[in-house]
């Protein structure tokens, strides 16, 4: 059985839209676990009132993404999950999303799978996976390489985000859960899927499984909305900082081949130091 893990903190309007999209799935062969990390809005009451089918696990507000997801995965595994999926609450799943992910999982039972993503506001395709060249720290966006008419099937990638990430139990059995100690929020998903790939598990973006997302709600976008010294510091060093230097260092040390590590680190630091002001 597939268990879908959704970490939430407030923003009930997004959570409701996400859960409604799961209710509308053509395949209902899954269970949903919401990890409510101390929400102070109507999340808890609305979940209990309107979504009795959803299991709720609670935190005290200090879990952040990684520990929240891990808490949900542990709960799912204890209930007998043979695969789990991490799903952000600010995404909307296409009606056949689960069916397409399960179909791909049936054909590739040890594969880690992500989804093709669209901007929920414009309908534009915005994410289809990427391949990273560790030698030069160069990212190759698959959407630049695959024409719109050929965007179907599975495509191998270096890593995947956690916004709609299917993980077989074989993966958690071998490499454990997400690295909540060193990567409490950002890069934990890219790190986990990169580690899984290096451990021998295929990592694919499934172009037949579609999600709509709200790019403006990402922490990186919010931090950069108003340029300031405080925002710059948060970008580089806060847990929610998209350019967090410590997180990047941990990711590099764990995943970059040693011969390429010095340049990869220096290049990555430079990009983070100046990137806040360029994007």
UniProtKB/TrEMBL annotation:
PANTHER family (UniProt xref): GALACTOFURANOSYLTRANSFERASE GLFT2, RHAMNOSYLTRANSFERASE WBBL
Keywords assigned: Glycosyltransferase, Transferase
EC number of this enzyme: 2.4.-.-
Name of the protein described by the UniProt record: Glycosyltransferase family 2 protein
Keyword Cytoplasm: no
SUPFAM superfamilies to which the protein is assigned, alphabetical: Nucleotide-diphospho-sugar transferases (SSF53448)
Group of enzyme by EC: transferase
Domain Glycosyltransferase 2-like, residue spans: 4-124
Lineage: Bacteria, Pseudomonadati, Bacteroidota, Cytophagia, Cytophagales
InterPro entries: Glyco_trans_2-like, Nucleotide-diphossugar_trans
Family: Belongs to the glycosyltransferase 2 family.
Pfam hit, one: Glycos_transf_2
Top-level taxonomic group: Bacteria
GO terms assigned for molecular function: glycosyltransferase activity
């Amino acid at each position: 059985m597939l268990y879908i893990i959704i970490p939430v903190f407030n923003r009930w309007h997004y959570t409701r839209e996400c859960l409604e999209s799961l209710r509308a799935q053509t395949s209902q062969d899954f269970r949903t676990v919401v990890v409510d990390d101390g929400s102070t809005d109507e999340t808890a009451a609305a979940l209990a009132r309107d979504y009795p089918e959803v299991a709720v696990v609670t935190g005290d507000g200090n879990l952040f993404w990684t520990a929240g997801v891990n808490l949900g995965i542990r709960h799912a595994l204890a209930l007998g999950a043979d695969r789990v999926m991490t799903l952000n609450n600010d995404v909307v799943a296409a009606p056949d999303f689960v069916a397409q992910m399960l179909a791909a999982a049936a054909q590739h039972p040890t594969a880690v799978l992500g989804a093709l993503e669209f901007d929920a506001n414009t309908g534009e395709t915005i994410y289809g996976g990427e391949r990273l060249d560790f030698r030069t720290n160069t990212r190759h966006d698959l959407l630049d390489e695959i024409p719109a008419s050929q965007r179907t099937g599975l495509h191998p990638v270096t890593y995947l985000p956690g916004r709609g990430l299917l993980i077989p139990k074989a993966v958690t059995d071998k490499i454990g859960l997400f690295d909540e100690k060193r990567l409490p929020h950002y890069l934990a998903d890219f790190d986990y899927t990169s580690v899984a790939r290096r451990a021998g598990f295929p990592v694919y973006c499934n172009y037949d499984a579609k999600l709509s997302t709200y790019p403006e709600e990402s922490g990186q976008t919010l931090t950069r909305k108003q340029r300031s010294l405080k925002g710059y510091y948060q970008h580089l060093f806060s847990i929610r900082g998209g350019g967090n230097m410590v997180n990047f260092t941990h990711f590099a040390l764990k995943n970059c081949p040693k011969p390429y590590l010095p340049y990869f680190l220096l290049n990555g630091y430079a990009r983070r130091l100046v990137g806040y002001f360029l994007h």
